[in-house]
TrEMBL record, chain A:
CDD domains: TM_PBP2
Locations listed in the record: Cell membrane
Membrane topology annotation: Multi-pass membrane protein
Entry protein name: ABC transporter permease
A Pfam family hit: BPD_transp_1
Family of this protein: Belongs to the binding-protein-dependent transport system permease family.
Keywords: Cell membrane, Membrane, Transmembrane, Transmembrane helix, Transport
InterPro entries documented for this protein: MetI-like, MetI-like_sf
Transmembrane annotation, as ranges: 25-48, 83-103, 115-136, 142-161, 182-201, 207-226, 238-259
PANTHER family reported for this sequence: ABC TRANSPORTER PERMEASE PROTEIN, ALKANE SULFONATE ABC TRANSPORTER-RELATED, MEMBRANE SUBUNIT
GO biological process: alkanesulfonate transmembrane transport; cellular response to sulfur starvation
GO CC terms, sorted: plasma membrane
Limits of the ABC transmembrane type-1 domain: 76-256
Automatic annotation (TrEMBL), chain B:
Gene3D superfamilies: P-loop containing nucleotide triphosphate hydrolases (3.40.50.300)
GO MF annotation list: ATP binding; ATP hydrolysis activity
Protein name (Swiss-Prot/TrEMBL): ABC transporter ATP-binding protein
Keywords from the UniProt entry: ATP-binding, Nucleotide-binding, Transport
Record carries keyword ATP-binding: yes
Length: 268, 309
């Protein structure tokens, strides 16, 4: 049997099911929904006592209650603000330091060992020092978040710049590019994909360091909510804070993900 | 069919090269052609851990005249690329000197344009933007765009102007790389096996293209190749790099000029002339190949048994 396609009907490219947008979103929601159902069932059937694990309904009530008091909005806003300011500051400094160390052998020799040592310090070790130096104000939290965001960006940028194809850099120089022009024409585009994955790591790390900062010395924010609810035994509020952190982290990462997609089609 | 396509294409190339490029390209870059002078040049690469310092080139003395096309022949790994890189200021000699237009070559000398052995296109730029990278500084946007469009037309890549390097074939990438070097309109054009990755037919077309461009805007060309016929077709003069025999069974370390010959006749040359065939035999012998095509020194009985086994 022969079958001729009319010239106008282009052969439809079948996309695999897993790459369709709707399927991806539904598939991603499947597990959270299952967890929610299991959670609800375990409370209804009395598998765990509600004093150990409050039911979803109780967590929802706690959320609404916090919202009505105005605390929820305030805490989310202040935490997001700290993360964003700290992330931007840390990422910009990380880009500069990474560019210096990645491009200049001298800067590599001078700075890389020290930065490596500072990087090895666990995040919580900074907290007492920052609190003494910067008090309980905003600065101490923002600085800690910035430290957290700095290192992933610094490391990925320095490493990526060191591994830019030397043939391409030589070709750029042979065609008269030098200094900033060479950097923007050859080295920067070559490292854009790794810079963005560094930024995503940095953002995740920023949220991590934020909670560390707020757990130990804050009067507002989601970390503070966690710490105060822990002291008061309010498991429902702890769950509210954890769920909000998950949602906020995922949301900010998704925003960077969109930017990454755009950058990769433009440069890679 | 292929023959007629080739004729029309070469006619179009010739017309284009004779007309537009000469005019548009005269607006930018240098119109001068510079002399290149190598004086007792040597290059030794520093020792890496296991091996001792390795001399690659030694005692290369040569003057390339302004507007001349010089072909550099030699076996693979004998230092052709190294010589070219030194001429362009991409590498520096460990002995002797190179001068362009009577002044020493500077680092990444702006009087040269290099067509690298590999295409070396920027993967995130389109083919057209890659060619534009070659434009001399101070080219106006308008003139630059016209020049790039013409060069793409010449190398037959107009239809692929908007493609990324990853989306074109290796031969196309090499043609784009050649166009980028031509865009520079340099005083000295350094081409490192520019036609190496091309299929036989495209290679002949690109050779003719190079001759057309050279005729329209004569510049000094140093052309590295391992193809004897290509050298004979394109060059005014051919040098053969190789190791000099100092004793019957000993060669001096490092390659130098072992043969130098001027190719007779004006371009474009008859690809089949008897005079060229004679030179061809001599060059092949210099490369260690007998003219009937067998490698010298390889035993003729290679262990394959003769017919009545
Ligand atoms: N940067 C370098 N460091 C060490 N050795 C090199 C370097 N560049 C080239 N060489 C050596 O010099 C020799 C000549 O290389 P090259 O000029 O590329 O040869 P060709 O172009 O004739 O094939 C090769 O054996 C190569 O290993
Ligand atoms: Mg080579």
């Amino acid at each position: 049997m022969t079958e001729t396609l009319a010239p106008s009907t282009a052969p439809a490219v079948r996309r695999p099911l897993t790459s369709r947008r709707g399927v991806r979103i539904l598939g991603g929601l499947l597990l959270p929904v299952l967890i929610l159902i299991a959670w609800q069932l375990s409370s209804v059937l009395g598998l765990v006592s509600v004093s150990q694990l409050p039911s979803p309904a109780m967590v929802w009530i706690a959320t609404v209650d916090l919202f009505d008091r105005g605390e929820l909005t305030l805490y989310v806003a202040i935490s997001t603000q700290r993360v964003l300011i700290g992330f931007v500051a840390g990422a910009v400094l990380g880009l500069i330091a990474g560019a210096l160390v990645g491009l200049s052998r001298a800067a590599d020799v001078l700075f890389a060992p020290t930065l490596g040592a500072i990087r090895a310090v666990p995040s919580l070790a900074w907290v007492p020092l920052l609190i003494i130096w910067l008090k309980y104000g905003e600065e101490s939290k923002i600085v800690l978040v910035a430290i957290g965001a700095f290192f992933p960006v610094y490391t990925t940028v320095a490493l990526a710049l060191r591994h830019v194809d030397r043939h391409l850099v030589e070709a750029g120089r042979a065609f008269g590019l030098r200094g900033v022009k060479l950097f923007t024409a050859v080295q920067l585009p070559a490292v854009v994909p790794s810079v963005i994955s560094g930024l995503r790591l940095a953002l995740a790390q920023a949220w991590l360091f934020l909670v560390a900062a707020e757990l130990l010395g804050a009067s507002m924010g989601l970390g503070y909510l966690l710490s105060i609810s822990g002291t008061n035994g309010r498991i429902d509020r702890i769950l509210v804070a954890i769920i909000l952190l998950a949602l906020l982290g995922k949301l900010t990462d998704a925003i960077l993900g969109v930017f990454e997609k755009y950058a990769i089609t433009k440069w890679a | 069919m292929s023959a007629s396509t080739a004729t029309t294409t070469s006619a179009r190339l010739a017309a284009a090269a004779g007309g537009a490029p000469g005019r548009a390209r005269a607006a930018t870059g240098t119109d001068a052609a510079f002399a290149v002078e190598f004086a007792r040049l040597g290059r030794t690469f520093a020792a890496t851990a296991p091996a001792s310092a390795r001399p690659v080139l030694r005692d290369v003395s040569l003057t390339v005249h302004p507007g001349e096309v010089l072909a550099i022949l030699g076996t693979s790994g004998c230092g052709k690329s190294t010589l070219l890189r030194i001429a362009g200021g991409l590498d520096s000699p460990s002995a002797g000197s190179v001068q362009i237009d009577d002044s020493p070559v500077t680092e990444f000398d702006t009087r040269c344009a290099v067509g690298f052995q590999e295409p070396r296109l920027l993967p995130w730029r389109t083919v057209a933007a890659n060619v534009a990278l070659g434009l001399p500084r101070g080219t106006t946007r308008h003139a630059g765009r016209a020049c790039v469009a013409e060069l793409l037309e010449l190398v037959g890549l107009t239809a692929f102007a908007g493609h990324r390097p990853a989306a074109i074939s290796g031969g196309m990438a090499q043609r784009a790389s050649l166009a980028r070097a031509l865009a520079r309109n340099p005083g000295v054009l350094l081409l490192d096996e520019p036609f190496g990755a091309l299929d036989a037919l495209t290679r002949l077309k690109m050779q003719d293209l190079l001759l057309d461009v050279h005729a329209a805007a004569p510049t000094t060309v140093l052309l590295v190749t391992h193809d004897v016929d290509e050298a004979l077709q394109l060059a005014d003069r051919i040098i053969l790099l190789g190791q000099e025999q100092v004793a019957p069974d000993a060669a001096a370390p490092g390659a130098t000029i072992v043969q130098e010959l001027t190719v007779p006749g004006n371009r474009p040359r008859d690809r089949g002339s008897a005079e060229l065939a004679e030179l061809r035999g001599r060059l092949l012998a210099g490369l260690g190949i007998d003219r009937h095509g067998d490698a010298r020194g390889v035993a003729s009985s290679t262990g394959i048994p003769h017919f009545p086994y």
